[in-house]
Amino acid sequence: MLAIIDYNLGNLKSVYGALKRIGLDPIITRDQDVIRQADGIVLPGVGAFPVAMENLKKYDLIDVLNEKKEQGTPILGICLGMQILFDWGYEVEKTAGLGFIPGTVEFMDIDEKIPHMGWNQLHFNQKHPLLKYINENEDVYFVHSYYAKCDPQYLVAYSDYGKANITAIVANKNVMGCQFHPEKSGTVGQNLLKAFKEMISC
Questions:
Q1: Which residues of the chain are under the pLDDT cut of 70?
Q2: What is the pTM of this model?
Q3: Helix count (H) and strand count (E) of the chain?
């Protein structure tokens, strides 16, 4: 069973629909008992880092997410859901994230239009199972104003936006994230979700 975490900040319907299209039968939930039974977890998100963390606390989801991480359950964060996997976010105010991936999330202080919105190519930094069905330089769809900074060992793929390198896919063991929206990225996004599906036993 795949659990899509509902913490009032996700584009839940589009993520649910994308996962259904690749043959999964996900459950949208914030029920801890349901999450504990999940073979895989998707953490979507649209909005602000501090609100996301506050909502996870409000719905008492942080401990169960930590449990599932420690158990080795595959976890995929999408957009804001990826950002809160990191140690710290600097949107509005410095806020502690889940700490599943070492690094920070900071404002894109670059000489390009912000928010970064549109299609950009993926460039691979290392091999990873999430890339199984994706070819280098294929396009995915981004919408964000903050981006992750992390050690290269956690960087799976990045995109170029002007002169800036934008962290696109990250991973730390069973915890993975993508800054772009696979549910809005056509066949390429579908192929990433297909690869994630193969990591879980549903």
A1: 201-202
A2: 0.96
A3: 6, 14
